[in-house]
Amino acid sequence: MTLWSGRFRAGLNSLASVLNNSLPVDRRLYKEDIRGSQAWAQALAAAGVITSTEAETLVNGLQAVLEEMESETFQFSEKDEDIHTAVERRLTELVGAIGGKLHTGRSRNDQVATDFRLWLISAALRLDAAVDSLQKTLIQRAETDLAVILPGYTHFQQAQPILLSHWWLSHFWTLQRDRERLRQLSERAAVMPLGSAALAGTTFPIDRFALAKNLGFSVPSPNSLDAISDRDFAAEFLFWAALTGVHLSRMAEALILYSTVEYGFINMADEFSTGSSLMPQKKNPDMLELTRGKAGQFIGLLTGLLTTLKGLPSAYDKDLQEDKSAVFEAADTMEVLLPVLEGVISTLTVNAERCRQAIHPAVLATDLADHLVARGIPFREAHEVVGKVVRLAEEKGLDLMTLPLSDYRLIHPAFTDELYSALSLEASVNRRSVYGGTALNTVKEQVDLAKKALA
Ligand code: ARG
């Protein structure tokens, strides 16, 4: 039986009920649904709506339902419209007619919003731990690859030499902001809808503050209409997944390039690479490509939910039933993606020699200009002078290192043979010892800072 059959003469068309039933999606909310119902039964007793013995019967009956769910002996019925129906139906089978008292003063509207928030809050905790673990791997990489120098790019053209450790940590800080966002959205989700009933608030004298505390929410929602309609927490979660996905995708894209024969900066471990059915030599970075590909999926899920929400008048509309699959899909994908990416990163090997060889000496042009600046030449002039040096070297098929001093001096008399010592990759990196810069000692401090941020 449905929870609403009273006013109907005929049952729901069978195909319509396939469309209507959300059980395949929301059955995973059973734990939250049962926990919420147990707290609701206690709140009803505290309000004098049911007796404490009745509440005890309901709480124990729900506990038995939970055990069936956990041991996978729970028999779902075709008629179970959603997880709320299934739990109440089974409860009533177990404890008898008194099971029918559970839903007093409650609606599935405040029930589902409560369950979903509880689920999201615990999923956020799990994902936070997964991101934390990935961040630790990035710190380890920074420590392992501490002094490895590679080309830094802007416009994807070689710009200045940087430390690989600095590059790894750049992704650490991005993820740190993602975690802040996750924690903040989870805090905002910790507002309890229960007691809002269908839309206008329950008629029974429920202490919603005590109920919120009992369920681990920070406060009860201050407006029942808002509480029923609000799916901001789901949208925020999907935005978190989309932005985190975009961040992971950007890192993956760089790693894919660095793993090509042309770059050869890194080599992916076999356990995280795949082969080709046709070309025997292939070792493909599928995990990184999937990381990049999943970003599109996350963005799509966010766009989908926002589109679903945009035209909805308050309070509950059945459209809202579409909220869960998007969030579950995003969370499930992240729960696999994050540890796989961690595996890719922790097992790849770095070819420090290749990283170094790939650096064109022209990336030291800024250092050469700074060298002139140290000799009192205004930077704007130094920039122009070094530009001419780069052009001359290029014309002669030479580079900044091999261009003879006589040529340098033709362009500017301030050049002496000391210029060649300015043209060192290590010196270039270490001159960037400003807070946040790529100098070796600065990055060492950054590693400590990153560790502290996680503690
Ligand atoms: N399965 C529904 C959902 O997920 C539960 C709420 C149903 N409420 C209603 N008024 N039909 O949205």
Written as H for each helix and E for each strand, in order along the chain, the element string is HHHHHHEEHEHEHHEHHEHHHHHHH
Structural class: mainly alpha
The biggest sheet amounts to: 2 strands, antiparallel
Query: What is the end-to-end distance?
Result: 52 Å
Output the CATH homologous superfamily of the largest domain. Answer: Fumarase/aspartase (Central domain)
Please give the share of residues in helix.
55-70%
Strand order of the largest sheet: 1-2
CATH architecture of the largest domain: Up-down Bundle
Distinct ligand kinds = arginine
Extract low-pLDDT stretches. Answer: none
| CATH classification class of the largest domain | Mainly Alpha
Proportion of residues in β-strands: under 5%
- Whole-number average pLDDT? 97
